[in-house]
Amino acid sequence: MSRRPAMKAADAGASLIETLVAFGLTVAVSAFALSLFTHYQRLARAQLDDSSLQQAQQTVHRELRRALRAAGRGGVARPAPELAAFVEKNVAAGHPVGGVAAAEGTDVLVVRGVMNGPVYWVSGFEFSPATARGWVEVRAEFAGAVSQPLAMLEEAGDAGDDALLLVSGTAPVHAVVPVTEVEAGGRGRSRAVRVHFHADASRGPFAAAYLGMSSGGGWPAGRMDVVERVGVLEEWRFYVRPPDPASGRRAQLAMARLYPGTGVAWRRRASNLAQPIADDVVDLDVTITETADGGGFAAAVASTAGTGEATAAAPRLERTATSLVRLRNLR
Predict the structure, then answer these.
(1) pTM score, two decimals?
(2) CB of 302 within 8 A of CB of 322?
(3) SS percent in the chain: helix, strand, coil, step 5
(4) Bond before 79 cis per omega within 30 degrees
(5) What's the domain count of the chain?
(6) Mean pLDDT, range 39-63, rounded to an integer
(7) I need a labelling partner for 142 at 20 to 30 A (CA). Which of 34, 39, 309, 328 fits?
(8) Calpha distance 195→22 (Å, rounded)
(9) 58 and 106 co-located in one domain
(10) Which residues make beta-bridge pairs with 240?
(11) pLDDT in tens, 235-258
(12) Are 220 and 249 in the same domain?
């Protein structure tokens, strides 16, 4: 009877050492693959973040250029350009923009002018120094040729308190007064509105602030016998909002509309104080200087956008963009 030969110990299966070696190789290859995957994942995330920062910077500078080019529009800058555009530099923590706060160490840009509506030609004007009341009349068609949409003046009368900018036709002076009432009449080309105002600094919540922005710091008596143009004066502030961990909101550049010179939200709505422009903007630096030729003013704008955290899993990115804007209405 034949017998099967006995198996050697080496033929019975892998030894412990061989198993450990194989396991070690598997772990090493898996670790390498995971590392490679993580690297490319981080790279893709970084590229995506960088693209988002570029888009944010483009949005920021497009909006700031638009606002700065409208600074002083309508005539508010003469003879004091600082009424139309100025910068609150390196603000402290909690610096107020209406009822919200700007991020510490950033700049707040303040811009005023007839920015989002027409500058109207005036058909009629009357002012009584005795009562400090007056009105201007604007027609839908001026001098038979100039079409003037009246919607913005009508809206200014709906809630009251909007700032009316009046520019003299005989001297380079202007006045800023509160709108009290708007009367509309007529149809089509004959449509007209009569905008009533007062120039009494003791009346109403905003009159003193408005008149303080007028030529000479008050109603320019004797120099406003003829009003040539009017418009609704706006004030916009551009600032960096700090991040809010509780809500998950990241740092962002925002804009606020206020009643000019008052610090009060336009229409008294909190939503008008924090209109977001772009996320991940962490710093704003604006400098306004007179041009070398003395022919006007220019604004140098720099914004810094950053995202991510300084950890191995999420590398921090940072991008700075600059613009130079000539302020054409401040000449």
Answers:
(1) 0.84
(2) yes
(3) 30, 35, 35
(4) yes
(5) 2
(6) 76
(7) 328
(8) 89
(9) yes
(10) 253
(11) 999 999 999 999 989 899 999 999
(12) no
- Please calculate the CA angle 268-270-271 and round it to the nearest 5 degrees: 115
Tokens, residue 316: 């921090």
- On whether both 142 and 229 belong to a single domain, the answer is yes
Cα Dmax for the chain? 140
Residues 85 and 156 in one domain: no
Do residues 146 and 253 lie in contact, with contact meaning Cβ atoms separated by under 8 Å? Answer: no
The pLDDT of residue 192 is above 70: yes
Q: Which domain holds residue 162?
A: 120-233
The answer to whether residue 32 sits within a structural domain is: no
Q: Name the more confident of 16 and 56.
A: 56
Tell me which amino acid residue 2 is. S
Residues 153 and 215 in one domain: yes
Q: How far apart are the first and last CA of the chain?
A: 120
The yes-or-no verdict on residue 313 having pLDDT over 50 is: no
Band of residue 312 on the pLDDT scale cut at 50, 70, 90: very low
Q: Is residue 90 part of a domain?
A: yes
Q: How far is CA 322 from the centre of its chain?
A: 16
Please give the mean pLDDT across all residues of the chain: 88
